[in-house]
Design goal:
The structure is a homodimer.
Chain A (H helix, E strand, L loop, with lengths): L9 H8 L3 H9 L6 H14 L5 H8 L4 E5 L6 H16 L3 E5 L6 H10 L5 E4 L6 H8 L7 E3 L10 E5 L1 H14 L5 E5 L3 H5 L3 H12 L9 E3 L4 H12 L7 E4 L2 H13 L9 E6 L12 E4 L2 H17 L9 E4 L2 E3 L11
Parallel strand pairs in A: 1-2, 1-3, 3-4, 4-5, 5-11, 6-7, 6-8, 8-9, 9-10
Antiparallel strand pairs in A: 10-12
Chain A binds a DNA duplex through helix 2 and helix 4.
DNA sequence: ATGAAAGCGCTAACAA
DNA sequence: TTGTTAGCGCTTTCAT
């Protein structure tokens, strides 16, 4: 019956090595300030005691948690899980822990900022585009500013650091691809609600922009609402199927809606790409394994997670805050597969 | 030019309310031990100062971080992202933060345990089945035990708390489904490596068990290796395609491999379900939207995340450790869709 | 190069 | 019911 040993503290190590706690601390963070002999003794003592630094104490003392907070709109989305994985790798490599949160309550800004004020996280990786700029500034513009990097589909406030993909351009290219294939009757599936009227999604704007540029008619009824889920893709399919006249090509704001749309169409006897061309957005893993393989705008989501996390940590460790905001735009790429086809006789 | 206010501490609140810090602390954690009048004054002071408790200080003092650590084998996997989301919701609701980690380095047990020893997390949600039981015990059986709940495909050490699905049974039912459809030539795709020889995956065992029970031949070459990725599903497809004699039905250990397998087969002109029936495992979102819609064993992954997290927090808050280990088994469910078919003339 | 001492912000034991 | 005091484990002046 073993007596549970106490978790060793820096004092225990000091005693073992016959030095002061201050010296142990130095060995651990500024080894060059300690003589080689002492250093060796301390390391040995660390090994012997199995000492691990107490982060809570260190955080309290240093006012830095060595932890970053990642706010996600819905982790269930495979898109974000890849981003999360990339972020985690970078964070770990640089000695940071990664807290995740999603449920933001009725005061999202406060919810997030409390992590900072309460000394649980040093900075924020914001992947949740539902927070409007105003709210965002509630986080960043406070006296006790929380360092943050935003990364989502909309173009964030220029005062806020951001790492994004060129959503507007990419959406325009998606439409251009359809147009180049001879399609003129083009539909779109995207989020549509009041907040969007004042601040439309970049992918929506890209769609509108390219349609206008090419002089193509934008038909209201061909723009179907979708919250980025497969279920909403199916719903859109039902809506299109019920129409007398349908678009010959549809651009969905993400791959999951494209898949739902395809699946839904199939149930209505509408075949892709025979009857309709569909282009998605994101290039999630399943896109190339779907049938038909999905044409899509590929997003560098590993890069997104990696770069955003690196930017944040640099911010935290560099001369924080006194530089200009960081704005990084990563390129998307058109990946043509089987779900789009030249319009027959077009 | 606003001078950045200092983050208010409990002392600031105390000063405002003209009470001692201890009283403020009491109001925040044991309100009933404080008179109503004082309580009101303190609350007002909290509001005025915008006070938020300093978690680092509290953690140091109480030796509890109010944070749980979730170890995932690969968050990229959409299966786990759903579990993660469920876990996060429960954790948040019960006042816990959720740290995630994946990169476990060369000493995974130590890596995970250090979170505990260093006072960063109070307990561990272990979703990574690659840690063998021995290693696990390195985490749990230490003098400084880290409370943990394991949840993955293999049946964990009985001394360890676990929340799992009935993988072995479910796998057997998957095979039974194929057999009932008249298939006798049944293949399987699953992880295969040395560690599996000593400790085969439950889904593998379930396959073997049901095949034996029905007196069906288990052909080594029909058991293809797969690391649960779509890419490995494709690889398996290539392997099967190259065979002179192929199975008429295949059970893959997860849906992603099933999708990869289907996509791969299609490229070789092998159609599902016409030429081969395929049953997956997990029922990821895309399964029902795939073409053909995937027959699969549905796993209650939201439940899994929820129940495991609840079990862990109960453990942390209850009379921890002195009870028997918790073992919860959640049921899987057969979902028949289009990717399996009765064997023609069978 | 090393040690002594103070203090980060909180809670809990004890006193009043 | 409330206040005083000590101390969680660490880092960091300031001495030596």
């Amino acid at each position: 019956m073993e007596v549970p040993r106490k978790i060793p503290t820096i004092q225990d190590v000091a005693r073992h090595a016959k030095v002061s706690a201050a010296t142990v601390s130095r060995v651990l963070s500024n080894p060059e300030r300690v003589s080689e002999a002492t250093r060796a003794r301390v390391h040995e003592a660390v090994r012997l005691t199995g000492y691990t630094i107490n982060q809570a104490a260190r955080t309290l003392r240093m006012q830095r948690a060595k932890t970053i907070l990642m706010a996600l709109p819905g982790i269930g989305n495979p898109f974000y899980s890849t981003v999360l994985e990339a972020a985690m790798q970078v964070a770990t490599a640089r000695g940071y822990g990664l807290l995740v949160t999603g449920r933001l309550g009725d005061d999202p800004a406060r919810w997030l900022r409390d992590y900072y004020v309460s000394n649980r996280a040093d900075g924020l990786l914001l992947f949740d585009g539902t927070l409007v700029t105003q709210t965002l500034h509630g986080i960043a513009d406070d006296a006790r500013q929380m360092p943050l990097v935003a990364s989502y589909d909309d173009v964030p406030d220029p005062r806020i650091n951001s790492v994004v993909t060129d959503n507007l351009e990419a959406a325009a290219r998606a439409v251009a691809h359809l147009a180049e294939y001879g399609h003129t009757k083009i539909g779109h599936v995207n989020v549509r609600n009041e907040s969007d009227l004042t601040k439309p999604h970049q992918r929506f704007s890209g769609f509108v922009q390219e349609m206008r540029r090419r002089g193509l008619e934008i038909r209201e009824d061909w723009i179907q609402p979708g919250d980025y889920s497969m279920a909403d893709g199916r719903r859109a399919a039902a809506a299109y199927a019920a129409m007398k006249e349908r678009p010959t090509a549809i651009f969905t704001a993400n791959d999951e809606m494209a898949i739902g749309l395809l699946a839904g169409f199939r149930e209505h006897g509408i075949e892709c790409p025979r009857d309709v061309s569909i282009i998605g957005f994101d290039d999630i893993t399943v896109a190339k394994n779907y049938f038909p393989a999905l044409t899509t705008m590929s997003q560098p989501r590993v890069e997104l997670g990696r770069v955003a996390t690196e930017a944040l940590i640099n911010l935290l460790e560099g001369n924080a805050g006194d530089g200009d905001p960081v704005h990084i735009v990563l390129p998307s790429e058109l990946v043509v597969r089987q779900s789009t086809q030249r319009l027959a006789g077009g």
